Amino acid sequence: MHFKARAGRALADETLQANLHKFGTGGLAALRARGVAEYGPQAFEQLRDAAAATRDRGLENLEVLIERFEREATSRGATVLYAQDGAEVRELVLEICRRHGLKKAVKSKSMLTEEATLNDALAANDVEPVETDLGEYIIQLANEPPSHIIAPAVHKSKDEVSDLFVKFHGTERKTEIPALTREAREVLRGRFLAADLGISGANFLIAETGSGAIVTNEGNGRMVTTLPRVHVSITGIEKVIPTLEDFATLLRVLTRSATGQPISNYVSIFTGPKGRDDGDGPEHMYFILVDNGRTSLVGGDMQEMLRCIRCGACMNHCPVYKTVGGHSYGWVYPGPMGSVLTPSYVGLEKALDLPHAATLCNQCGVVCPVRIPLPDLLRKLREKQVDRRLRPASERLGLRAWAWVAQRPRLYALGTRFAARYLRMLGGGQRMITHLPLGKGWTLGREMPAPQGRTFRELYAARAKDS
Amino acid sequence: MRVGLFVTCLVDLMRPSIGFAALELLEKAGCEVVVPPTQTCCGQPGYNSGDSRAARLLARKVLDEFEGCDFVVVPSGSCSGMIRTHYPDLVRDDRGLADRVARLAAKTYELTDFLANVARLVTMPGRFEGTVTYHDSCAGLREMGVKAQPRALLARMQGVRLEEMGECEQCCGFGGTFSIKFGDVSTAIADRKCGNIEASGAQAVVLGDLGCMLNIEGRLRRRGNTTTRVLHVAEVLAGQDGRMD
Known about the structure:
The complex is a heterodimer.
Chain A (H helix, E strand, L loop, with lengths): L2 H10 L1 H12 L1 H13 L1 H20 L1 H14 L3 E5 L2 H15 L3 E4 L3 H5 L2 H7 L3 E4 L2 H9 L15 H12 L7 H18 L2 E4 L3 E3 L4 E6 L3 H7 L3 E7 L3 E2 L2 H16 L6 E5 L13 E7 L22 H4 L2 H6 L10 H12 L27 H14 L5 H14 L2 H19 L4 E2 L6 H4 L4 E2 L6 H11 L1
Parallel strand pairs in A: 1-10, 2-3, 2-4, 4-7, 5-8, 7-10
Antiparallel strand pairs in A: 5-6, 6-9, 11-12
Helix pairs in contact in A: 2-3, 3-13, 4-13, 10-11, 16-17
Chain B lengths: L1 E4 L3 H6 L1 H13 L3 E3 L9 H5 L3 H15 L4 E4 L2 H14 L4 H12 L1 E3 H8 L11 E5 L3 H5 L5 H8 L4 E3 L15 H4 L1 H18 L3 E4 L2 H13 L6 E4 H6 L7
Parallel strand pairs in B: 1-2, 1-3, 3-4, 5-6, 5-7, 7-8
């Protein structure tokens, strides 16, 4: 199903609309605004510059950095593996499960495992995956994909969560958020203690120390990466950055852009398995670096997209996302960054309407912590569609015809003269057109104000003649 | 000061009163205004739809028509933004054209920006009694830096009271062909804008882009709001009432 159909369904869903309205009115955008104000708007712009430059430096030396990361991580006892695509991720993780006899997995938030549809593969092979991020846990119960990259259950109301907990926990219905959170915590505590496999993502991989870093607010990530006897951290190859210093720069901009926080409640850096003198930690630690389309962007006109640090600010500020929610975008990543990533990773022809599902308002571009020019990238994808003749013939011809006429001023003057009168007539006494020919999409929900009746060029010529 | 007025295709077709208001304001500011008669469209529809070849042809045409002027002034944030920020991108690979386009881009202004910061118009010819709220159009605000200029000009008019709406910098949902391709989503976004406009209690919403104008007025009327007026800032400043006959 395409964006258009999904978005239509989202608009008709009253509960979802109420939840989205709440998100869109205060939500994460308001928190970011506060965080930026506290930091100082000008200083924050400098921070964005620094963060973008840091990411570019990393991406320009990606191969070297990945090698360095592998060397450092390996020397500290971790195993570094590579996956070309989602299928290889699934195979590698299942192989790790077989090797160590793992049956119970706890997961902290990882969008990459969504790309790889890892949970289904684990369940089909008798490894039970349990999501431990509260939002992820909620949508796992609901059997839904995340609708936001950092607030996966943002489309759910408190009442919907209460219903899910009653159904799956068999407990008395709770209505207050602290009580609901406590209940999830109690259920999850047992899961953590029973798990033999911890699966996490990584916000960044740090080349100089061979470490992974995760940024969370719930603390579940730290338990996932330390309690079970095997830890697997899965992330995209573009997440490798040179130094811990770079991590500090990116961390400052990441949390503020995401939730307005100066720093998240937990920042965890994990380096290798449990050492001889360590009190805790996994016995075995693996990193899986995933390509899944990323190298196709390196060195090309979409490379800027690889700077993305997954803060969610673009969707928090997107009028379209706030109106139709994340599930409308159809794949793992929603909002503006998703509309760029999905066609890039899944295929231009498989997500034809996503690059068009934006008003190009640039509210995303001005908040992006690493200055990704998202509207420009969407426009480039539109160009690629035209180049590859993926747009409908009617649209192609319409645009060509418009440009052809617009280059012929006399013909153009004649055409607009006619159009101004015809549309004026359609507008009637109210001067509003209720059914626009060729513009049903417009007049289903709006009037089209009628033209004044004569074109500017006619009136201007007449005026010049009079004087 | 020889100013070329780029009327824009939408103003030409839909609401010539805006073009005449702009003309009057520029003349009041002491500019010699020329209106190249062959002008049509800046090429934005093609550009935003991925047809950069068509957009390049029209950019070339605008360049030929306007490069002889000292300034190019446009009563639209998105069309002026097209010339200033996107034309240079379009011709980047054409060395001969790139320099000429860069010069054109540098002297292209959105109307209120030009009136406030270049021509420094102090006394507005128009009269307006009442409360207005200002909608910041996306391209005007984020491409052309238009925010304080229209408000400053309105503040120089006696009788105009500005009441800011909530989320005034939020997109109205127009987005060019987006408004037709995804009419329902576009309408829902416009609805939110209309709610904010109504909540401000203003008698008129004033703005600087015709796309937003058609979208917002169209949605207000369909919602049953027949009283909130939708006016281009040039119309208010020049004292045009938005009707030509």
